[in-house]
Design brief:
The chain is of the alpha+beta class. The protein has helices at 2-16, 22-32, 34-49, 53-79, 88-94, 129-142, 244-251, 259-265, and strands spanning 107-108, 111-112, 118-120, 124-125, 156-157, 163-164, 168-172, 177-182, 190-196, 205-217, 220-233. The longest helix has 27 residues, at 53-79.
Length: 266
C-alpha cells in the first residue's frame, strides 16, 4: 500500500510542476485516480476470497466512493457533461462561499503569499483591452479552462471571485516600465497595457485575477464587463533604506513605551 501511495504522490508532484492549462491538468489527475481505485478493487477481491466480510464491506464502500468520483470526473473533464446524481453540489450549498474560493489565500508553490505582503499594481490599459479580454474569456469558458458556476440553480457570478487568469506575461521594457500581455494560450499573447514601476526593485507578479462577467440576481441575468487585477509582492522591509535620523529618534524614545505603542507611532 505504501508503494502505491509513493507512486501516486510522485506523479502528483510531477503534474503540479507542469505549466499546463487547468483543463488538461485535471484530466491528468483523473487518470491518476485510476491507480488507487484499481488497488482498492484488488483488496476487495482478496477479502472476498478470504471470506473476511467485515473488512470486505468497509473496503467496498471505499471502492464505491472512489469509483463514483472517478466516473463524475471522467464525464466532466473528458466529455463536458454534468450528471443529476452529482452530490458535490450539496457541499456548495452547505459550505460557505469562502471555502471554495482558493484565490483569496494567494498561496504559491514557493511560499505562502498573504495580504500583508501583496498589493495591487496600477495598469494603464489600452482602450480596447476589455474587448480582447471578453473574447478570450468566451473561448476559455467554452473550452472549460476556467471553472464556472451553474447559474440555473442559484444566484451569483458565473466565475468565482478573483479567478486566476491562466495565460499572461509581465514583460520588462526597461527598469521602470513593463508590458502586460494576455491571451488564450502562451502562443497567442497580446499586449493590453503598460505598468509604471516607481520602486527600485523589479516587479514580482503573483497572479492576474479576473472580476466581473455574467451574474444572476433575483432570477435575472446581468453582465458586468470583465476586469483584470494584477497582484505583486510588496517590497520587503530589508530592501527599505533606514535613515540615520530615524535611528537616532528611535534611540531617544522613552523607556516606558510598549512595542505596540512604538509601532503605532511609526
Amino acid at each position: 500500500m505504501s508503494f502505491i501511495l509513493d507512486i501516486v504522490n510522485g506523479l502528483n508532484k510531477f503534474l503540479s510542476y507542469l505549466d499546463i492549462s487547468p483543463k488538461y491538468l485535471n484530466r491528468g489527475y483523473t487518470i491518476l485516480s485510476i491507480i488507487p481505485t484499481v488497488y482498492i478493487l484488488r483488496i476487495v477481491y482478496g477479502l472476498w476470497l478470504n471470506q473476511n466480510y467485515v473488512q470486505l464491506a468497509l473496503y467496498s464502500l471505499v471502492f464505491i466512493a472512489l469509483l463514483y468520483f472517478l466516473v463524475l470526473n471522467v464525464l466532466y473533464y473528458f466529455f463536458d457533461k454534468n450528471v443529476k446524481f452529482d452530490i458535490t453540489q450539496l457541499f456548495v450549498k452547505v459550505l460557505p462561499e469562502d471555502a471554495f474560493n482558493f484565490q483569496d489565500s494567494k498561496a504559491t508553490r514557493h511560499g505562502k503569499i498573504t495580504l500583508e505582503n501583496t498589493e495591487e499594481v496600477a495598469v494603464d490599459y489600452f482602450s480596447d483591452y476589455q474587448l480582447k479580454l471578453a473574447a478570450n474569456m468566451k473561448k476559455m469558458i467554452a473550452e472549460r479552462e476556467i471553472k464556472t458556476n451553474d447559474l440555473s440553480k442559484h444566484d451569483g457570478f458565473l466565475i468565482e471571485k478573483n479567478t486566476l487568469y491562466p495565460y499572461y506575461f509581465v514583460k520588462p521594457l526597461n527598469d521602470q516600465e513593463y508590458s502586460l500581455q494576455i491571451g488564450r494560450s502562451y502562443d497567442e499573447l497580446e499586449e493590453v497595457g503598460r505598468i509604471k514601476n516607481e520602486c527600485q526593485d523589479p516587479l514580482k507578479p503573483i497572479g492576474l485575477f479576473i472580476t466581473g462577467g455574467d451574474f444572476v440576481k433575483g432570477g435575472v441575468r446581468y453582465h458586468e464587463p470583465y476586469h483584470l487585477k494584477l497582484m505583486v509582492k510588496k517590497e520587503t522591509a530589508k530592501n527599505q533604506t533606514i535613515h540615520p535620523t530615524a535611528t537616532a529618534q528611535a534611540s531617544t524614545q522613552p523607556a516606558g513605551q510598549t512595542r505596540a505603542s512604538r509601532r503605532k507611532h511609526r
